[in-house]
Structures are given as C-alpha cells and as structure tokens.
Amino acid sequence: MRGPNNGRAPRRPLSVRSPRPAKRAKNNGRVRLAVGRILLVGALLLAGVKLIQVQGFQAEALSAQAKMQRATGQNIPAERGAILDRNGNQLAFSIEVRALYVLPQTARRNWDELRAKDNTKPSYEDHAREIAKFMQQTLGSEVNGEKTDEQTMHGKLTQDTTYLVLVQEVEPSKAALIVKKFAEIGSEYRAKRVYPNAALGSNIVGYANWRLDEKPPTTQGLLGIENSQDTLLAGRMGRRVVDTMQGDDTLVIPNTEREVVAATPGKSLELTLDIDTQHAVQKMVTDYTAKTGAKNGSAVVLDSHTGEIIAMANDKTFDPGDFAKAGPDQLRNPAVQSVYEPGSVNKIVTAAAAIEDGLFKPDTVLDIPGSIKVSDRTIKDAWNHGTVPMTFTGVFGRSSNVGTLMAAQQVGKERYAEMLQKFGLGRRTQSGLPGEEAGLVPPLNQWSGSTFGNLPIGQGLSMTLLQMTGMYQAIANDGVRVPPRIIRAEVGTDGSRVERQRPENVRVVSPETARTVRDMFRAVTQSSRDPSQAGTGPAAALSGYQIAGKTGTAQQIDPNCACYSSSVYWITFAGILPADNPRYVVGIMLDAPGKSQTAAPLFHEIASYLAQRYQVPMSAEQTPILQL
Known about the structure:
There is one protein chain. By secondary structure, the protein is α+β, with helices and mostly antiparallel strands. The chain folds into two domains: 72-271, Penicillin-binding protein 2a (Domain 2), CATH 3.90.1310.10; 275-487 and 498-613, DD-peptidase/beta-lactamase superfamily (Beta-lactamase), CATH 3.40.710. Mean pLDDT is 89; it is low at 1-5 and 12-19.
C-alpha cells in the first residue's frame, strides 16, 4: 500500500538560505554613504563655527595682525669680484658696510603714541637727542667725510620727512650697536668698493659705486674696466621671499624666509699690469710731463713676446675714493682714447717693407738731396743740406724725411698700404680697454697725389699710443705682432683660474727682417761728436744694453689756419730693451711740450727701471758704431 507520496522519495524539509553576495555589498555601501554624510556635515559645522569665530570674535585681532605684515620679495646681493694685478695684488675689491637710516615721521608718531601711554617718557626731540649723542659716541664726529656729530644727527632725526639716510658707510659692528639700542634706526646692506692704491692705474681700473635705485643697493661699474666688465664682476643677484612689517620692507619677521634663490658671486679679474712697474712709470710720466711743460703725457710698457700691457700710465689720473673731485681730463685714458699723428716713429713701416722686399740692405748708400717733391708738395729734412751720401741705416738713424720717401716710392703704394694693415693701424687693438679709438688710415682708393708724401713720414694718419707701441712689439718679437691685452685671466671664488683666450698673432715680416730692422734702429741712440754720425735720440741709450728705437716729432694742426703748426708738436718715442734679446717695448707720447723737447730721456728712465726690476741681462756686446 503506497504512502502519501505515492511511492516517491520523501521531500527534504525547506531550509533558510544566506543573503546573496551582491545584496550584502549594496547594504555596506549604504552604510558608508551615511557615515560619509555625517562626517561632511560635522566638518561643515566645525568650519562654520571657526568662520564665526574668525569673523566675529577674532576679526579685529587678525585684521590688525595682517596689517602688520606682508610678503615681500627681496634681492640677495651678489659679492662683486676683485680686480687684481698680474701678481694677485688687489687694485679694487669690496667690503661690507651699512647705511643707517630713519623714518622720521613714523618714528615721531610711534614715540608720541608710547608717550601718551607713559607720560614719564621724554619728548621726541629729547629722545632724538639721546640717539644722536649715542651715534656720535659710537661713530665719532665724521665717517668718510660725512658729519655724524650730535647736532647734525639730531637735525636729521627731527626732519619732517618719510625716509632719510643718516650716514652711508658704517662698520657693520658699530651699526649693529646702534640698531640694537634704538628701534627707530634701520640698517641697510651696502658693498663699498675699495681702491687701496688710490690714483694708481685708475684710468685703467675705473670706478664703481652704488646703484641706489635697487634694494638693497648694488655696486655698478661706471668707468674703465669696472664698467666694461661689469656683468662678469657683478655676478647675479639672488632672490627670496620674506614677511616684513607693514611700512618698512627692511624689517624682516624672523623665520619667514622662503623661495630662496642663492646669489651667484662675480668673478675676479687678473690684469696684465704689474703694480710696482705701474707705480714707477706713472710717477716718471707725471714728473717728466710737468718738466717739459706738455699738456699731457702717456707711456705704455709691453712684454715684447706676449703683448701683455705691463704698465700704462698717464700724467692725469684720479682717486676713485674721491671721485667727485675728478675733472673730465682726469677720467680719460689718453693712451687708448687719444689719437695723434705719430711723426717719424712711423718710418719703421718703410724700413720693414724695404728690407722684407730686398730693396735695400742696411749699408746701402743713397744719395739724399735736400728736398723731394711728391705731387704738389715739397718735403725737406729737419736740417738744411745739399745732396749727401747716407746709408739706409743712416736714413732712419738721422731721421731723413727725404730718404724715407725715396725708399717708400721703391716699396710702392699698394705694398705700403698692406704693411700699414699688417702693423695693425686703422683699427682697434681689441686690448680689452674700454673707449679705445681705432685711429685713421685713409683707404688706398682715397689717396690723393700728395698722400704718399705724408704717410711714410707719419703725417696724414693717426694712431693711439698703444697702437704705436704695438708696431714696435712686432719688430721686437721677430716679426710677429701679438695684439696687446690688459685682462690676463678670470678667477673664481674658489680660486680657480681661467686664462683669457690669447688674440690671434699676425706675421708682419720675417724673423730675419725684424732682426735687421732692430739692428738698424740702434743707430737712433748712437752718439758721436760728428753730427753726421749721431742719431736723433742718444739720450735714450742705456749703459750695458743695446737699445733700438725711434724718435718722432709731428706737427699739430693750427686751428687758426687749418694747416700744420710750426711751433706745436706731438713728441713721441718707441724703443726696444734690449735690441739683441728683446724683453720689453716702451712707447711714449708728449702732447705739445715746450720748444726742443724730446721723449728720449723719459725712455732712458723707464728702461733703466725695467732692467733693474726684472733683472734683464746686459747685452753680450755693446752697440757697434754704425755707419750713417
């Protein structure tokens, strides 16, 4: 008999199943969303409470605090590089000083507010007198020419103005004492430029001073190498952001410095000058210029092999430490900024070209007439004579204009113009000295018929003293002209030294020609009782040394007639020490000295100093008597 299931298997009882996974995740999300909403509402409630607190209860205090400070960008001064001579002696460097200043109106107002709260305090005038008295006690009655006595300082402190510098250059330690004692006094960083040798080499080194339109004031080169190399010397300022007190950007709130970009210090410059030689030559030039009555005088000393400027002196200089007293004539560097007609020193071009081209030998005898005609001009020698025999050496030893022009005509115009270019005339030397003039050489296609009667004897063209000295450097250096330079190297703050790239040399004549010309020009310093055998510059001779050189006398232009003057001259001399083994070349120019003056004695003085200073060996043999 079948049961209720009609023989089928009994059914299993139904059981309660667990929630499915998707449904469980959905419930968890709802819980998290609810919690998030509760937290957001809580945060908004807290923010609202804080906002009510700030805008309500703390509004006045926070507003006052905000007014008292603000973010300020400030420059970080870069240390300016020094200027050194070739031996590391300082010609210019910077030291830190402080400028003390006051905000008189603000100081009076703040003091009056304090006095209103405390009537035991003295009046502002009495307080200012107290400050002034302390400043005089600390600084003395004068700082670098600025009066700092009690009366002067009191007068400044009580002026009715917004800002006033009390004193420019104060030692940092003394400035700190004053600022610490009196909150009214502010201190501002300054980098003072120092020139320890006063006027020595000032026409070259130049001058730098504060640039007050920048905060803090930076040092800017205004003259000379300080100006031409300003970017390199100055470096690059840094930058920072700080919080400062409202109304005074110099009052920095402590520990607020941020976004700092460090300053890059400037590099120092090592010049080719020797400070001792510069001192000696500058004194000699100054004394000799005054002795001869010349308007001005200059001298240049070059290393014959490197072209480096060992000394460059002018009789008129200035003290950078007392710049305000300098006149326009003192601020120039005539050795490179003044051009003149060189006169007979230019005859070395003809000599070099003629020897190089094999037209003459030193002992070739020429019959020199008393005059020569070139186009519409008749040129004579400085002394009257008929036709006389003269060696090619004698033409230059005795400085014959006629003989020089005869030789130049053999050289030819095109070749002569080429030699002027090789000697570096008519363009700047690129020495590194600012304000350098190029001089003037008329281009060949503009020569008139008489031009070739002027140029070989040093008229109708102009040059600087540095260019003239460079011509003789080429002959001293076996025919290779090394363009002169004044900057030797750049020196980093870590002492690393990078030498400036040397200029490209120019081959002017062969070594054999250069030596021959040097030997010929020894005749210029030759002395003899026989006038026909005496050179034009015996006063330049130096005992124990062979000296080659050339005198020059060039007529200046008379403005009244626009013609050459018969009484006003440029007097020049260029010489080589020693001629048989050159070490130094000296060029000299005197502007309008008295009658019958010569620059040869000044060369003798300078050459004598150089021989001793640098222990130049004496010549192996004395200069032989040359047949003139």
